[in-house]
Amino acid sequence: MQYQIINIKTVQTRKEGQLSFFEGAHDFPFTIKRIYYIHHVPAGAKRGAHAHKTLQQMLFCPYGSVTIFLSDGEKTEEIHLDNPSIGIVLQPGLWRDMLWNIDNSVLCVAADQYYDESDYIRDYDEYINYLKVQKEEANI
Ligand code: T46
């Protein structure tokens, strides 16, 4: 499955609390062009239900708990983002669903491209067909 879990650098500060950070060229496999975050979502709500053709993204949850369900058309995996020091880098071509486990959890995303709706595949049958065509093209 085309994703990596990354440890976000976190320091125990002299003041109460911890501070987590990442630096573009040092800690990232891509150049960040866009950051967005999803908030005010009630527990039990689901989002996602799409794949990206080319977009790479890093997802992390600085507050709360969100489960990410991934599929590559054959296998499925789920990752629990409930630690502000953990992120996942998703490569293109993965179907994703997200489940909010706790009210008002925040899901932050750093992306390597500007928003472009034409990069989304939002229909699962279309996604399976897209993967099939990709495989056929790779074998030519
Ligand atoms: C993803 C997961 C993890 C914008 O106008 N600009 C943006 O940068 C984004 C990300 C979205 N939008 C608009 C497009 C839709 O009209 O916001 C609306 C909701 O987007 P969507 O239904 O795709 O949201 P999610 O939470 O299902 O998915 C989002 C990202 O879109 C997606 O790339 O991988 O978070």
TrEMBL record:
InterPro entries: QdtA_cupin_dom, RmlC-like_jellyroll, RmlC_Cupin_sf
A UniProt-annotated Pfam family: FdtA
Listed Gene3D superfamilies: Jelly Rolls (2.60.120.10)
Sugar 3,4-ketoisomerase QdtA cupin domain mapped to chain residues: 1-131
Highest taxon above the source species: Bacteria
The protein, known as: FdtA/QdtA family cupin domain-containing protein
